[in-house]
Request: fold
Amino acid sequence: MWQKLLDPALRALIREGTLVLHLPDGSRRCHGDGTGPPVSVRITDPGLIGRLVRNPALAVGEGYMDGTLTVEGDDLHGLIALGVRNLAARNGAWWHRLAERGRDWARVVRQFNPGWRARANVAHHYDLSGAFYDLFLDADRQYSCAYFARPHMTLEEAQAAKKAHIAAKLLLRPGLRVLDIGCGWGGMAISLAREHGVRVLGVTLSEEQHRVATERVRAAGLSERVEIRLADYRSVEGTFDRVVSVGMFEHVGVPHYREFFCTLRERLAPDGVALVHTIGRAAPPGSTNPWIAKYIFPGGYVPALSEVMAAVERAGLWQTDVEVWRLHYAETLRHWHARFEANLGRARALYDERFCRMWRFYLVACEQTFRLHRQCVFQIQLARRQEAVPLTREYLYRGAAVAQAAE
Amino acid sequence: MWQKLLDPALRALIREGTLVLHLPDGSRRCHGDGTGPPVSVRITDPGLIGRLVRNPALAVGEGYMDGTLTVEGDDLHGLIALGVRNLAARNGAWWHRLAERGRDWARVVRQFNPGWRARANVAHHYDLSGAFYDLFLDADRQYSCAYFARPHMTLEEAQAAKKAHIAAKLLLRPGLRVLDIGCGWGGMAISLAREHGVRVLGVTLSEEQHRVATERVRAAGLSERVEIRLADYRSVEGTFDRVVSVGMFEHVGVPHYREFFCTLRERLAPDGVALVHTIGRAAPPGSTNPWIAKYIFPGGYVPALSEVMAAVERAGLWQTDVEVWRLHYAETLRHWHARFEANLGRARALYDERFCRMWRFYLVACEQTFRLHRQCVFQIQLARRQEAVPLTREYLYRGAAVAQAAE
Reply:
């Protein structure tokens, strides 16, 4: 029965590009408009067919993880590009489009994110072995988009450029008090304290990150100026001259956006400046891909700028600048994926083959989404008073341009 | 009866600062918390009192125009600052707050803006004598926010900096085709054609602006490359490499935002880049001040970024950069007001005293709103493809920073 539905489902979904599908019964079918290099997929488990008909966005990834769906030449980039392009063109059977509408509407419930749930969601991803993250991240373990300010930068250089760009936006001076919401393994907190003489309180919900970050602060001799706290950002008290949050807003959930920015405003001194760095969609509000939500980021959501801004406005904050990074994350993920493949043997020593295939699918799917679909990074600078930041944005580029002129 | 209601109304409205009020019956009352320099207002028409109770946001301006409300020392800045500060703090009697909610909700009707209404709204303001605009604008008649890239720039320099900054954002090359939506008296179109070798179609709904701009294009010897058309932007056909719109979006109306950005997308070539420059509010969506709506900009509205972005997202455009200019317009209006006062004798030769008082109230009210309330300018760069603009924003600042380093 499912095999009969597979044809119309794929006809509706794959309208651009070329998909060659080999089914378990030995049959072979072709879908798409015949353009581009063909992507050849083999399905070995008859049970996967029904799941592909019902929810392809979930089942393709699951089939790849299980090894019941393979791509000729292991051309995962090609397979995902085919899917992303067609989903971007809003192709798909009516039941897929209906299900997506349902997911859009359900996000208020799915993203309800009290402390206990936030902790569980964070543990799912960030409490993985630190050794595993070292297999694909840069030496400073920056697990967010790098900034390729110059072509051909290495990943390490681009992550340093990201931290420097954020530091410039924060207008730091020695002695200022900085709150880092979602501090990860402490790389940003340590850099800001060491290079700008500020005092930092970093908060994370991940026990593994808290342990590693605390140890790194100690090793850097910065325990006097940097504190890493295992806490929900909503429990922090006091005021800070600067607030920075990099790659954490994706976990907040739309129903909590106003709470997030109101908390941020409360923590900010009257002349304070904040910088929120988050993945964003250059498209209307939508929902999270079901495979990503199930396996990678439970509770995660990529916001549209209109959603973020509505919350910023109601919190009474000035949005003093909005930068939109395009393609930087595709490039970052390309680096992560290359390092992951280079270290695959060590990854297999830590986790099983299914996990490794899941991780590969995650890295490639995200890279292709940033490259081909409407996904980007928003850097939103915020202040309580409009005078808190300079009149023009030139201060962000002075060093870079002068350096280039001197070359 | 109205005089009895005046006390509670003012008590609710003026909670910060000090207002001394002299009424027609010779009585005198004091409102506010006693802080700041007192603002002393004299009302000479008993009929104004009821209007002040019912709708102070309209009646204060009307009283000032009629000369039935005067400020001691002609301290209009002080009076308006008092009003803006208290409105910003959401002070006011319950019926004023209720009326404002009503205005907020009514904006969908009020801003319905088909061609005939757009023409009438435009004629109201922009068909005033060109000689009048020369009394307060810069020599190029730039009737939008200037860019004070350096402190102590003259108005002429800051308007030139504005045009240069917009040109940089448009990534111009000789021969590109540019559509200028709301071209005013042609200053932007002429500058872009002359300095960047592009071809420009400028559209305006104002007959006076069309006449003047066409004559200026001819005088500049640019008739081959610049066309000024008396037309609604919705009637333009064909595609353009670049679209620019400066200070026109304020007249579009919220119900037409999606139509505006969809039209912009249709006019834009696949690799095209657009720049929309508009006054904005760093606050939730609201309504237009009733005095401004009645006397200055019928149909005008200052959007929140969340409103603009929702329309951009649905039109399928990339927002590649959002710059927020703060205080530049306060400075621009300060210059305009100073020039207006210096040329007051010539203004009185063109229009009557009530008109001149209206214009002064307009310039000062807007200056104080930009200085003290949550009003700013959004420069929104848009593209159909994410690759249409460089990876970083450094290209916007290269010249300026290098010039400064060389100083």
Q: What stands out?
A: DSSP finds 18 helices and eleven strands in chain A. The longest strand of chain A covers residues 268-281. Chain A has a mean pLDDT of 93. The first helix of chain A runs from residue 2 to 13.
